[in-house]
Design brief:
Layout lengths: L8 E9 L5 E10 L4 E5 L6 H9 L6 E6 L2 E2 L10 E5 L10 H11 L4 H14 L15 H13 L5 E5 L7 H18 L3 E5 L2 H7 L2 E6 L2 E6 L1 H6 L4 H6 L4 E11 L2 E6 L2 E7 L8 E6 L5 E2 L8 E12 L3 E8 L2 E9 L12 E6 L4 E4 L3
């Protein structure tokens, strides 16, 4: 068994290849703490789901080992790992009632009848489905079915709960409500959850930490706020949230800051990942950090632009501006008055702080 302070889940130099040549997962080393909500986030084919399937026991690592609660599990079959699983497809038995679906994993584990009834009742209360035990899955809404699937994964009190795109089939509002429900259950029950998604909004909303995958490698592992505010490379910056990208060449590096030539203009930015003077770089800048027609202030980055497009989003106006020879530069203007009417074709000024602009790798 694991000792106090040791990781609850550990991937040790784990690799996975399906054809013996191409590595889908490349030398993964990852520790997950007991009680942590960790999300594996990335585009299709990035390796995140393969990692989850190896942890569940449905796939076997080509190299390395996986340790669960201090016990290597490479050779342990899925049904002996004591792991709850929630899938996008719900995977409920249509011919069984809700209560029978919840009782099934307990019956398989030879739990007594009275204990099964008590646990099923408790699980239904936990997901706010009291009184639904006699219904069949086909009589439930999508959100109710997903809550049943979640209750079934928790009813036998597993060590670990794995979730593979569990909200992908739900509509936007229901998906957002379920995010909060799952997060609240995690907090209340102290669950250890490993969650897989390609939806960065889900990852930011629910997670203690997020592992951003691409090409079988974790690009960055951090808390949601750090991922958004301080991406370590151009892929993470572009994948997490909306992001303006400006390509240029480094003129000078002055401590933590650098000067970058973008279309003949000098842009000042944080030197996060630059190779030095003369190197190409990608500047990353969040649209909400850009100021349109700022009043006063000594801005290190202040450039003329022209409004190309205005799109109303309710809480903000998404303003596309041509600036520094880029016509896809986005500014999010808060919808709180005081900016005056903007029109397509207007000449404007855009400004931002050097600390809000990150000079990253050129990819």
């Amino acid at each position: 068994m694991g000792t106090a302070g040791s990781p609850f889940v550990r991937f040790e130099d784990v690799q996975k290849s399906y054809d013996g040549e191409t590595l889908v997962v490349k030398s993964l080393n990852l520790d997950i703490a007991r009680g942590e909500f960790l999300t594996m986030l990335g585009p299709s084919g990035s390796g995140k789901t393969t990692c989850l399937m190896m942890l569940a026991g449905f796939e076997t690592p080509t190299h390395g080992r996986i340790v669960l609660d201090g016990r290597p599990v490479n050779d342990v079959p899925p049904w002996r790992r004591d792991i709850g699983m929630v899938f996008q497809s719900y995977a409920l038995f249509p011919h069984m009632t809700v209560a029978e679906n919840l009782a099934f994993p307990l019956a398989v584990r030879k739990v007594g009848k009275a204990e099964i009834e008590a646990r099923v009742r408790k699980a239904l209360e936990m997901v706010r489905l009291e009184g639904f035990g006699t219904r069949r899955p086909g009589q439930l809404s999508g959100g109710q079915q997903q809550r049943v699937a979640l209750a079934r994964a928790l009813v036998f009190e597993p060590k670990l709960v794995l979730m593979d795109e569990p909200l992908g089939a739900l509509d936007k509002q229901l998906r957002e409500n379920m995010q909060y429900e799952i997060k609240h259950l995690h907090d209340r029950l102290g669950l250890t959850v490993v969650y897989v998604t390609h939806d960065q909004g889900e990852a930011l909303t629910m997670s203690d930490r997020v592992a951003v995958f691409n090409d079988g490698v974790i690009q960055q592992l951090a808390a949601p706020a750090q991922l958004y505010e301080a991406p370590e490379n151009a892929f993470v910056a572009q994948f997490i949230g909306e992001n303006n990208r400006l390509h240029g060449r480094v003129r000078a590096v002055n401590g933590a800051l650098c000067e970058v030539d973008v279309g003949g203009a000098c842009v000042r930015a944080l030197a996060v990942r630059v190779a030095g003077q003369g190197a190409t770089t990608t500047l990353s800048l969040r649209p909400e950090r850009v100021h349109l027609n700022p009043n006063g202030g000594d801005w290190p980055n202040h450039f003329p632009g022209r409004v190309e497009e205005l799109i109303y989003h309710g809480d903000h106006i998404r303003t596309r501006v041509r600036v520094l020879d880029h016509d896809d530069f986005i500014v999010k203007v808060p919808n709180r008055g005081g900016h005056g009417p903007l029109r397509e074709g207007d000449e404007v000024a855009v400004a931002w702080a050097a600390e809000d602009c990150r000079a990253l790798d050129a990819a």
